[in-house]
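Write out this protein's structure.
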Amino acid sequence: MADPDVKRLPIFQVDAFTDKPFAGNPAAVCLLEDVDLTDEHQQKIAAEMNLSETAYLRKLNSDDDFSSSSKFGLRWFTPTNEVALCGHATLASAATLFYMMKNPSPQLTFQTLSGDLFARREGDFISLDLPENKTQPLDREPYSQLLKALVGMTPIRDFQYCRSVGGDLLVRLTDDATRQTLESLRPDTVAMLAAHTQDIIRGVIVTVKGSVENGCVDNQGVMYDFISRYFAPWNGIAEDPVTGSAHTVLASYWAKELGKTEFYARQCSARGGDLKVRLREDGRVDVAGKATVVLQGMIRI
């Protein structure tokens, strides 16, 4: 006999920035239907799912429908806290609506803590319309212990900070660094946490300029403009597999460095993912990727 006090909500697990299951960046997507979950419940579900992000889609009006409406509320929670912007969980949310709810809208709008975000169909890709997040140079001396825990003795060319995305450090390795250099980094996340306890860092981006010579090419030999990894132990994420929001920072940085606005990029985690990124003149960033749904069910609360 069904327990009337138990609520059941549709929940999906989506691998974002990949077209293959068990690659890219997994996110949970929960449809709130007509249930108004407390922040505490949303945090507990995110901890239970134990993915880098759990997204919550909510209707904005009582007569809205996940299968036909085009505008929704969206929030993101890590296993430990709510965040202001998450690209891959936004992509996962759009994929859930497009692919699982059969929503026919050509574009979806999400009301978020970072303002209105948009997701468009572009062939086999879903393109996210996100805000640009600019960096500023930063004195690296106060962060010397953090950088040692992050990259060891690997030489650094540039060190910058982006406040608007919630506090991301950007560490650019020297141009003689290879893809293997980046992929072989083994940050000591415990030491990173101990080295910096102030509440101004969301995570750290480590990036390398792409070239054929340093191995920054895909399986077809096409060169990546830049590659990166992303570490966020302050948010309970030792390493995020593929980070859409970090590419709003990377697009702004590399546009100045490379003198171009369209990029082919890869995040070089163990799961990995490819992204198409474009910095627009209106201060927005298009971040496009594929997504595949790997799990569908109901969560009991």
